[in-house]
Write a structure and sequence with these properties.
alpha/beta; 5-stranded parallel β-sheet; 7 helices; 11 strands; 24% strand
């Protein structure tokens, strides 16, 4: 007897430009149980960007004061906020909530969703390829994202993040489908079953 598969909250970690958004889109194509948890942010949407919601800082603060947000992150001069309710609803329905998340904020998710996380660290093939990816859409004009990525990858290489993630994978060039399929297979293997 196999039992009913329970869900876990899939968090994708890794530096900016590593391909987390593309991986999430592919995961949703692979299995419609994946539910992207849209992030609120205080900057306008970039061309083609569809997985985030642009709101004012005032509205974000009101949502925070009402307890609707898990956290507000300040990254590169922009505030990003993660809503609580869509995650809870997705888990309750047996869907697979998925979100890209900063590694230095893992404590929050572990406290709010103990035992309900499956965490994947996504690495770039090289720092040079990451730099090329970041320069494609002018998202790193001042080099801040690349500097932050170098710092994070140096901490990763120093084994500082051992135990923070369940699985790691390299986001090879032009291999998003393969990368997503590998993450999906490993995610499914780690889902608990209810008998």
């Amino acid at each position: 007897m196999q039992g009913k598969v329970m869900s876990k909250f899939l968090l994708l970690l890794g530096p900016s430009g590593v391909g987390k958004s593309s991986i999430i889109e592919e995961l949703i194509r692979l299995d419609n149980r994946f539910v992207y948890i849209p992030t609120f942010m205080t900057r306008p949407l970039r061309k083609g960007e569809k997985n985030k919601i642009s709101i004012s800082a005032v509205k974000m603060n009101k949502m925070w004061n009402r307890g609707k947000l898990l956290i507000i992150n300040d990254l590169y001069g922009v505030c990003y906020a993660t809503p609580r309710l869509p995650i809870v609803q997705a888990l309750a329905k047996g869907n697979f909530p998925v979100l890209d998340w900063p590694i230095n904020k893992m404590d929050i998710m572990k406290q709010v969703f103990p035992g309900q996380l499956y965490v994947v660290y996504v690495l770039p093939p090289s720092i040079e390829i990451l730099q090329q990816r970041l320069s494609k859409d002018n998202r790193d004009i001042d080099g801040c994202r690349l500097r932050s990525a170098r710092e994070e990858l140096n901490m990763y290489k120093s084994s500082r993040y051992i135990g923070v993630y369940d699985f790691e994978i390299i986001s090879e060039e032009n291999q998003i489908s393969k990368v997503a399929q590998t993450i999906y297979s490993n995610y499914l293997q780690h889902l608990p079953r209810q008998f």
